[in-house]
Amino acid sequence: MTATEMTPAEWEVMRVIWTMGDLGSNDIIKAVQEKRAWTESTIKTLLRRLVKRGALSTSAAGRKFIYHPEIAEKIAMEETSTALFDHLCAMKKGGVLVNLVAETELSQTDIQQLQDLLAAKAKTAPEQVACDCLGPNHEQDCTCSQEASTND
User: N or C: which end of the chain has fewer CB within 10 A?
Assistant: First the structure.
């Protein structure tokens, strides 16, 4: 299973396990229910689905199962963001990133890392990113360059 195949509900369960570490189902249920009004059976169904699809594994601890993540959180986030950006027009990715940064709370360290990265990228950045949209009349019909210039 890849992270891009996880539903939003499955992400919620995985976030509990990534944050708190290996847990039994009762601990997972309690943690999820602190944030969501989901029933125990809903959470157990999500756990079974995640095990079946390989995102979680289990080990026996007496009479209960302990759930272990089989997908690292960092890898899951990177896979998901990469998959999303793979579907966007190359000319529009920058605007999406600008909006994402504007809407996201960032630490001083995050901001410094972004500034350093952007300064390095600015040295080799093209004046304009080429459109990579698809279609038989792409060159005539694409409005990406017009949209990009109105967003500046």
Answer: C
Q: Do 28 and 67 form a contact (C-beta atoms < 8 A)?
A: yes
Domains in the chain, please, with CATH? Answer: 3-69 (1.10.10.10), 89-151 (no CATH)
CA distances from 72 to 17, 25, 84 (A): 10, 19, 18
For residue 90, which amino acid is it?
A
* pLDDT, tens only, 89-101: 888 899 999 999 9
> Is the entire prediction scored with pTM above 0.90?
no
